[in-house]
Design a protein that fits this description.
Blueprint lengths: L24 H25 L7 E5 L4 H16 L5 E8 L9 H9 L3 E5 L2 H8 L7 H18 L4 E3 L4 H15 L8 E3 L6 E3 L7 H11 L16 H15 L3 H8 L28
Parallel strand pairs: 1-2, 1-4, 2-3, 4-6
Antiparallel strand pairs: 5-6
Helix pairs in contact: 1-2, 1-7, 2-7, 6-8, 6-9
Subunit structure: Homodimer.
Subcellular location: Cytoplasm
Enzyme class: transferase
């Protein structure tokens, strides 16, 4: 029987060694403390949702953004201390965006000695041809990207597909579905794909985006910006993100509270008769003392 990877909180060793010798001590100390927190949170998510099991072949989807770099970095650290054996392969989909620096990811991945694959598929031309100017490109782009990655995972026998969505993404998706689709649903830390062939995991489910941003800066990851849709200010997700940022400024800790609430659902306190038997609800008969 496969054993889920339990909570991992390895003692940080050699964290400062990854920094230039001239780096000031406070920066090294911050990286060590932040790295320890991220390892703890990722390890906790892996344990809570049984994300990684003995013998798993994990395909880590690497976009070149801060989130996926951080996910790969932390998973590689946990892999060294894990009580179970699993492999990691970083996979990037080159979508043929104009001026995409195709050399950056191979150079970085080779420098850290991780197994990797670069897929090439011109989804950029498809999206820009099909989607009218000014309309949101994310839906089609995501669908095409997901199809390419799922196909590659199936062809090469990967047992888990790791995506870099973090705590704030999970909260934002909840509000997107609530405000724009009239449903209470979100982005689960672990899910089965619609065709039942792939298990998708989100190891950063407990990690705040702000912490990821700080970690990426301290580690000096070679960030590659998304030029396809990054400038679309009319996206519904960006509206929700601005709302969340305002909330966090006004009441620090509110996003963390909402994130915890997503893991504490009370069906009897909502209004879905498919989840709770309201028709059968009746007072209990009095009992004799």
């Amino acid at each position: 029987m496969n054993t889920p990877l339990p909570l991992l909180d390895p003692t940080p060793t050699g964290a400062a060694d990854t920094l230039p010798l001239a780096e000031p001590v406070p920066r090294a100390g911050e990286l060590e403390r932040l790295g320890k927190r991220l390892r703890h949170q990722v390890g906790q998510a892996i344990a809570d949702f049984g994300m990684i099991e003995d013998g798993d072949r994990v395909m880590v989807c690497l976009s070149g953004g801060k989130d996926s770099y951080t996910m790969l970095d932390v998973l590689l650290q946990l892999q060294k201390k894990a009580p179970v054996s699993f492999s990691i392969t970083a996979v990037n989909l080159d979508q043929k965006q104009p001026d995409f620096p195709a050399h950056v990811l191979p150079g970085y991945l080779e420098s850290i000695g991780v197994d990797y694959r670069i897929l090439e598929q011109d989804t950029y031309s498809v999206v820009t041809r099909v989607v009218p100017e000014g309309k949101t490109m994310c839906s089609l782009c995501s669908r095409l990207r997901r199809g390419a990655l799922y196909t590659f995972a199936a062809e090469h026998g990967f047992t888990k597909i790791a995506l870099g969505h973090h705590r704030d993404d999970l909260v934002a998706t909840f509000f997107l579905n609530l405000f724009f689709h009239a449903k209470v649903s979100g982005m689960p830390p672990k899910l089965l794909s619609d065709d039942g062939r792939h298990v998708v995991i989100r190891p950063l489910a407990y990690v705040a985006e702000a912490d990821i941003g700080r970690y990426a800066r301290l580690k000096d990851f070679p960030i590659i910006p998304c030029n396809l849709c990054g400038s679309q200010e009319n996206l519904q997700r960006k509206q929700v993100q601005r709302m969340m940022a305002d909330w966090e400024r006004e009441t620090p800790g509110r996003i963390e509270t909402i994130a915890r609430a997503l893991g504490d659902i009370r069906p009897s306190q909502l209004s879905d008769p498919k989840l709770f038997d309201f028709l059968g609800l009746a007072p209990r008969p009095a009992t004799a003392d």
